[in-house]
UniProtKB/TrEMBL annotation, chain B:
<dbReference type="Pfam" id="PF00441">
    <property type="entry name" value="Acyl-CoA_dh_1"/>
</dbReference>
<dbReference type="InterPro" id="IPR006091">
    <property type="entry name" value="Acyl-CoA_Oxase/DH_mid-dom"/>
</dbReference>
<feature type="domain" description="Acyl-CoA oxidase/dehydrogenase middle">
    <location>
        <begin position="120"/>
        <end position="213"/>
    </location>
</feature>
<dbReference type="Pfam" id="PF02771">
    <property type="entry name" value="Acyl-CoA_dh_N"/>
</dbReference>
<keyword id="KW-0560">Oxidoreductase</keyword>
<keyword id="KW-0285">Flavoprotein</keyword>
<feature type="domain" description="Acyl-CoA dehydrogenase/oxidase C-terminal">
    <location>
        <begin position="226"/>
        <end position="371"/>
    </location>
</feature>
<dbReference type="GO" id="GO:0016627">
    <property type="term" value="F:oxidoreductase activity, acting on the CH-CH group of donors"/>
</dbReference>
<dbReference type="InterPro" id="IPR013786">
    <property type="entry name" value="AcylCoA_DH/ox_N"/>
</dbReference>
<dbReference type="GO" id="GO:0050660">
    <property type="term" value="F:flavin adenine dinucleotide binding"/>
</dbReference>
<dbReference type="InterPro" id="IPR009075">
    <property type="entry name" value="AcylCo_DH/oxidase_C"/>
</dbReference>
<dbReference type="InterPro" id="IPR009100">
    <property type="entry name" value="AcylCoA_DH/oxidase_NM_dom_sf"/>
</dbReference>
<dbReference type="InterPro" id="IPR046373">
    <property type="entry name" value="Acyl-CoA_Oxase/DH_mid-dom_sf"/>
</dbReference>
<feature type="domain" description="Acyl-CoA dehydrogenase/oxidase N-terminal">
    <location>
        <begin position="39"/>
        <end position="116"/>
    </location>
</feature>
<dbReference type="InterPro" id="IPR037069">
    <property type="entry name" value="AcylCoA_DH/ox_N_sf"/>
</dbReference>
<keyword id="KW-0274">FAD</keyword>
<protein>
    <submittedName>
        <fullName>Acyl-CoA dehydrogenase</fullName>
    </submittedName>
</protein>
Amino acid sequence: MRFQLSGDQRALRDGVREVLARRFGPRELRAAADRPPALDRALWRALGDAGFFALRLPESEGGVGLGLPEAVLAFEEAGRVLLPGPLIATHLAAGRVPGAATGEAVVTAVDGGRVEWLTEADVVEGGGGRGVAGSGAVALRSVDPLTPLHRLPAAPAVSAGPEAVPDPVAVLLTAAEQLGGATRACELAVQHARTREQFGQPIGGFQAVKHLCAELLVRVEVARAAVYGAAVTADPADIATARLLADEAAVRGARDCLQVYGGMGFTWEAEVHLVLKRAWCAPDVPGAARRVRSCWRASCCPERVAGASACTDGRRPGGVSMIVASTDHTA
Amino acid sequence: MDLADSAEEAGFRARLREWLGKALPTLPPRPSPADWPGRRAYDLGWQRMLYDAGYGHVHWDAPPGVRLVFLEETEKAGAPYVGANFVGLLHAGPTVAAEGTQAQRARWLPPILRGEEVWCQGFSEPGAGSDLAALRTRAWRDGDHYVVTGSKIWTSHAEVADWCELLVRTDPEAPRHHGITWLALPMDTPGITVRPLRTLAGSTEFAEVFLDEVRVPADHRVGEENDGWRVTMVTLSFERGTAFAGEVVACRRVLGELAQEARHNGRWDDPALRRRLGRLNAEFRALWRLAQWNVSAAEASGGVPGLAGSVFKLRYAQARQDLYDTAADVLGDAALDLDRPWVLDRLTSLSYTIAAGTSQIQRNIVGERILGLPKGR
């Protein structure tokens, strides 16, 4: 067992981090939040050039030929800088939709009754027979200034067939983005607690604040282990676990960060609200409760014990489809 | 990133599994929790079996990854816990190994490994708990002896221990971290009074130890005089490192049993309960991954568990308490019956956010030493 980043993986993470810092730093983030949402096509193509979308595509098909762990590291970095856009949908479309792999096409996907970045996308996937593009999709005033949303009319009932269940890879990459957001929240909170002074000392010296920061880190580290572990095994219960804990780390982390920031946290100017709003926007499919149940069913139900032991070694072929099987017959 | 066993780990796992399959059926019946001499004999006997089979050293010199395999496999097989050997194997022993002289290592280490001697820990005092450096038990030098007077508290296994790793104040004038000395105290020395403390679970898991002019040979000192704080801290991370990793395996088993009980008694029909169980399942899965992550990090950095142990312990302590509170939810009224499974475990789980550094102290460690926040109150 060597459950640490390899040298190549560290280099890949650092490379992505460096590109993103150059192209989408805090200044660009604030500027983007202050104007109507528009996708930066040049940045999108730069991501394509860097192999962000073609990361898992085989080299024989013009891709980078890497795996889930590397994709998770890249999406964690994207989440950390709150990079806007339908990144996961485009990544998943690489090799299927012309132009997606290179960043020439922007692909979004229907998520239950909503779709993000609809007007900016070149291709909209999913949505069954609802004919999204020309239909009466209604623009929302999205809570997140960097995630424009449309609501779809006549969304089918929640208990739709297997088609309505998301790709487990999409679930895992969302978890990776949430992990990145949680990391950002922790970094912001700690930086502020070190420098902001009250009562003649940095507020991070007060245990009430210090302990909030410590819990932020604990949630990040637990989520990180879960997300990276799921990337290695691709086991459905591991993916459900990763998503659950990464969501918690991001949402609670951003809330705690906001609290550490005090009055500044309640302003538009400080970027904390953008971290929280992005965390809220993560696709809530197939729903938190069902995620927990799938996590449960895949491993602990007495009748599934055999299946669980078979998949914990991570080499069960087609294991990723198990989350589908385990969510379509809920109690 | 790789979660598969290395060749060394896989070979170790296979050999250990085979040995456990043969060895465990030969164990005597477990003694009752109140039978201290019986528990001592049982725990020492298990360590002796491990030693004879070549596993006695695992906690000391096996690579962290192999040690995690040991914890996982022994727990899955239902093998005994480290029990009365805890202090000897996981703190006093490693301290002697790291800081003792050749003669001290030769005197104290083999009996720990062979399951012949039990150690206890004389650190905390009534006035020195979380603030351990406030300890006041005094030791004066008298010829080739130290003379020790004071009292210690929360000393597990004091009633059946042969040795006590003792922290004493040898220089009350020095800054408080610099006036402390580490001594090995034979527990049969005149002047020692052990008074068992009854825990809220009703049992006597630990004791108060009163020391009245107890004479300890000066050559029982490990490290220099007044250097005992550093000597102790060298190996304290062992206690918070992977020591709890095996328990995560046990918690996952308990969770499966809870689900079965809930199906049996009808509580499973409550979606809120199912949700709680699912949440705990995710929690313990993630904690196991975190243990694997920390172990791999320790292996990469030379084998010593670091501050990450505080992160793990914070989360694990809370998860364990949640687990047994959920067990009470499954049991309903039966949760008030001490003869039902999990009820006693629920009581003992209350110590997890206190023992081996309270959660508040762990948050200070995480905040100050990992995140670099200023010290303060």
